[in-house]
Write the structure tokens for this entry.
Amino acid sequence: MSRRDTSPSASPELNRSLSLVQATLYGLGVTIGAGIYVLIGAAAAHSAMYAPVAFVIAALVMSLTAASFAELVGRAPVAAGEAAYAKLAFNSDRLATGLGLLVVAIAVISASAISVGAAGYIAVFVRLPEFLLVTAVVLAMGAIAAWGIKESVVFAGAMTLIEIAGLVLLIVAGVVSLPDLFSRLPEALPSLESGGTMSGLLSTTLLAVFAFIGFESLANVAEEVRDPARTLPKAIFLTLAISTVLYMLVVWVALVAVPLPELINSNAPLALVFERVTGASPRIMSVIAIVAILNGIVVQMIMSSRVLFGLGRQGQLPLAFARINARTRTPLVATSLTVGSILLFAVFLPLHDLADLTSRLTLLVFAVVNLSLAWIKLRGDPPPQNAYVTSAWVPWAGCASCLGLLVAELGLASRV
């Protein structure tokens, strides 16, 4: 076989097969993930009954960055989206490569952390050493991610439907069993006169922002979506809207159903809420939590490997990362490196201290993406025909909001 035949340009292409429904399920799978299953206790601790308002504020802030991604994905519908956007805006290979690798690092650390979390939940049902459970989880999810984009997204989509069904079941049970669920809504309106209230609301907003992170991963499967310029903006906004509604309702049901001290001190808050509003075993919600966590691992693997693939094809990483397997139509080298890195972090490194770093790096990436679009629009580059276009002020506001949240988060952390 000649050198030309083995080049990435001669290799099979990614399989462009995902519909709007499949792309939205992928986005929901990344965004909802495992966060909401463990976040409610911390949100209640910071702002008590005002927590739903914090989720609304966070959704509004994230909608600015979502609008920037929605336009950029039409301007550059390629894998390694964030890196491609920086390259398009600033024509800097170093900035693009650094940003792309930063996105990969965030995904790997996040997947490693939730892999350990999955092992903890599974250990309730299967008594094995943690490192064996972690290894089994990571390798099994890696095999699914390498299987094929349509197969892995269908798998992730099915798991997403299960985790969403669990949240919907919780909401419906709350509506049926809590007669004062809606009459107590005025309690969610914060008093602006109390400084402590505003500080707690800001803390919860920061937590809630991180619960919405994930919609941006849709940019990295742009080459596997049918008509990405039209489909992906819709999928991004649908992901954000559905997540917002689910989060608000679940948080409110939890706050009304369980006294604050119990909710705050629970290690499995949604399992506790499920038990209170249904009378059923909390293990049911624990199983759904496992599904959510496994789903989060798969979608992070897919996203990270596509970023490596995109960087390889653009010449910013070795060409091996850009090779597509003819049988699976997936980048196996990039996927293998992603899976190996996740396993290495999950088994050998303590990850508790990396959670805050991951969140801060994500806000930094969002700020650069917003700045990229702001610069492209300021330069006057015309968007492709029929692509989604946002207002010129949106990316500037998105960049400012991300940097503002980053500064606020660092400020709150310094007080602890």
In short: Confidence is low (pLDDT under 50) at residues 1-9. The chain is about 70% helix and 0% strand.
